[in-house]
Amino acid sequence: MSYQPPVLMVPLTQQDKLLNKIAIAGFVALFLVAVYGTFVLPDTIPVHFGFNGRVNGWGSKSILWILPGLGLFIYGLLTLIARSPHNFNYLVEITEHNAFRQYQIATSTLNWLKTELVWIFAFMEWKIFNLATVENPSLGIWFLPAILLIIFGTIGYWLRQSFLAR
Fold it and tell me: What number is the average pLDDT over the span 97-103?
């Protein structure tokens, strides 16, 4: 017989509620840029960027709707997954004593990540909008490293919190 971690309901903290509101504001920004861009941008806009941040692909402005759709999908998926923290894999053993705190940490991690991803998408959408009408458009060489630092920094921080709360 294998060990089954306790199934607990973990209510959203005030921070989690605030993060969800911030993410919703990101969705508003995403959709506003997509709607506005549909009317004012040229038919062909930058749609793909290389590692150096320079545009290496152009396409239809209808691509502006992919990031809001993808953001909504990821947000919904992570929200759904966060409802079952007892099914996650943890670096520490889950016991009756530490389960609630570990589950809180896991759900906070997901709330931070989904908020960051929505705002990363909003930033990308805004940059695509702004770069659509300039000569030699580029996100800059810093863009990819900064995004990776944000995401992996968040994961690292919360993994450390989980380890300390074991």
Answer: 94
Q: Which residue has the tokens 């549909």?
A: 38
Angstrom CA distances, 144 to 54, 141, 148, stand at 11, 7, 6
Six-digit token pair at 124?
């990308």
- At position 136, the amino acid (one-letter code) is N
Task: Give yes or no for a contact between 55 and 131, defined as CB atoms under 8 angstroms apart.
Answer: yes
The residue type of 134 is V
Pair of tokens at residue 158: 């919360």
Phi, psi angles (nearest 5°) of residue 58 = -120, 150
Provide φ and ψ at 95, rounded to 5°. -120, 175
Name the pTM for this structure: 0.89
pLDDT, tens only, 123-136: 999 998 988 888 77
Widest Cα–Cα separation across the chain:
65
